[in-house]
Specification:
Layout lengths: L1 E2 L6 H10 L1 H12 L10 E2 L2 H24 L7
Parallel strand pairs: 1-2
Length: 77
């Protein structure tokens, strides 16, 4: 199961979720009433961090392009 956090340490959260995986699995078993419930493994999803990094790179590239255009240089394509 991939997860993200708004605040706090993702590593600590991942450890806590994996420690509680058995309890959570048992709760799913009782609620879903199915024969087999898969084992739960939790992993921190870095998609939000990567998206922020990409947005920053795009913003910097756009700013550099604007400066080049003001200086009269043609942007590199």
């Amino acid at each position: 199961v991939f997860f993200s956090v708004l605040i706090g340490d993702p590593k600590e959260t991942e450890e806590a979720l994996n420690e509680a995986a058995g309890f959570l699995r048992n709760g799913l078993f009782k609620r879903l009433q199915i024969h087999t419930v898969p084992t739960l493994h939790f992993h921190f999803d870095r998609t939000t961090e990567r998206a922020a990094e990409m947005n920053s790179l795009i913003s910097r590239a756009n700013a550099m392009r604007a400066v080049d255009e003001v200086a009269g240089e043609e942007p590199n394509d």
